[in-house]
């Protein structure tokens, strides 16, 4: 079953196209890793898929209320405890207990600690635990392994593997190899938009009012 | 939505949350006035309504940039915008949390501060009524200004410039209600105008605020 289908997509940053003619599908049980040099538009693409910014052309098909997005910033409140942070997002997504997320990301020992006292890697793990409490099948992840040590990367890879095994799907931009054999790799370099002087898009695209 | 309200209230009362900041500012403004205009009771009584309303308005302004800026900085706003909650609801709830932590304490403290300014006896009731009716509009309009400036570095001054003109009708009718009430005149017109402004603000402005946030998140 296809959970995410993208056709002929052009995404823009600062009013200029960065990626164009992009198309792919993501089926249940599959993961897609986006690769490409810095600045090619991985974050812009993920933000567009998450609905945070409009696409210039093309279509994005995803069933409603199936996506969970994790950005560079984890969205954690430093004065709230690990449990309070997770409970908040569980309430927002209308899901129940958070115990499985605490155990899965090895946060049980830190459950009552305020987020401000966590290390960068522990905060990242808490940010990823948030994904588990959303209950959403499609994960859209921007650099999910930043600040994680090798053991935490393996923990995260296991969580993704479990998610895929349960019929979920994951789209992620990452520079490291997670060791996920289920994951396909999409190199974004061929989809880099041409600059206007080389025949690329010349129109004006006002991001604010579309 | 309830979870968001509870989270914002919890954040406000914890260390660094800024709870009480507006109230302390209000107290300082009210205390400074007699130093500036002199301690004569009749002079203070004449200007008390205006000073109290202006002080409440400025105290409210002080904490506006925190409504969305902190969520923007830590990435929560992105995540809330992609969560299964309408952004208009998020804006309304965050304005409500701002009112509970800033506006409501001002309403409750205003009569006490009125004593410092020799506020005439009959004015106390109308001061509380006018602030109770008017301060929700200040929070909702402030949330609109905060939404417009979210993501801007040092947007606080711009926020004040944007929001203060929008506060003028609330200030005029709020202060007028107290003045009329204190002097035994008919209060129906300013009362209805103030209630109408607040009702219309709550009904319409969150949509504009949500649109502003969507644009600023791009």
UniProtKB/TrEMBL annotation, chain A:
<keyword id="KW-0472">Membrane</keyword>
<keyword id="KW-0067">ATP-binding</keyword>
<dbReference type="InterPro" id="IPR005895">
    <property type="entry name" value="ABC_transptr_haem_export_CcmA"/>
</dbReference>
<dbReference type="InterPro" id="IPR003439">
    <property type="entry name" value="ABC_transporter-like_ATP-bd"/>
</dbReference>
<dbReference type="GO" id="GO:0005524">
    <property type="term" value="F:ATP binding"/>
</dbReference>
<keyword id="KW-1278">Translocase</keyword>
<keyword id="KW-0813">Transport</keyword>
<feature type="domain" description="ABC transporter">
    <location>
        <begin position="4"/>
        <end position="210"/>
    </location>
</feature>
<dbReference type="InterPro" id="IPR017871">
    <property type="entry name" value="ABC_transporter-like_CS"/>
</dbReference>
<dbReference type="Pfam" id="PF00005">
    <property type="entry name" value="ABC_tran"/>
</dbReference>
<protein>
    <submittedName>
        <fullName>Heme ABC exporter ATP-binding protein CcmA</fullName>
    </submittedName>
</protein>
<keyword id="KW-0547">Nucleotide-binding</keyword>
<dbReference type="InterPro" id="IPR003593">
    <property type="entry name" value="AAA+_ATPase"/>
</dbReference>
